[in-house]
Amino acid sequence: MIIKTASSENASLIADAILEAIGTDITNSLAGENSSPQEVHDIFERLAKRNDSQYSYLNTRIAMTDDGTPMGVCISYDGADLKRLRRPFFYEANTILGWGISDEDIETLPGETEPDEFYLDTIMVLPQFRGQGVAKALIADAKSKADTIGKPLGLLCDTDNSRAYRLYEAVGFKKVGQRPFAGHLMNHLLWE
Fold first, then answer.
1. Phi, psi of 43, deg, nearest 5
2. SS3 helix, strand, coil % of the chain, rounded to 5?
3. For residues 122 and 129, what is the distance between their CA atoms, to the nearest angstrom?
4. Sign of the alpha-carbon dihedral angle for 85, 57, 23, 63
């Protein structure tokens, strides 16, 4: 397995990973009544192509087989950069989904991460590669980035996702609390 930084050509795969990670309920919630899940995918694909968004290819690592077949995706970034990195998401949501969130609202909305942690935003392993250690390798890669900047690795895990919670606990994460995200209560986990 090879883990490398994504390129803008991986934008569709990155968007697929984000939608799988957030699940159908949150995807539909983001779309609302006037938009479709495909429009939500299109937003994330555009954000993945940018160099200034939290979902940028620059914040994404891809696990690949030796012949270059994608196995999994991990998006992570310094939590101190969240406010700057999430602005493009809200601008896209305003434009495509008609949200109407003001610049002032963007600044005051609670974030999914804190400035004192390195945030594992999204992790997804393609179905044919599950159970082969890909998720653990991607998490270890993100942990290495966190260690490099001297911050714990943090993430949110849906309270109903016991399988993912067991994986995170097995590699070293500890629950430090709960936090709402997109209308859902999530477990906040840290690996110091």
1. -60, -50
2. 50, 25, 25
3. 17
4. negative
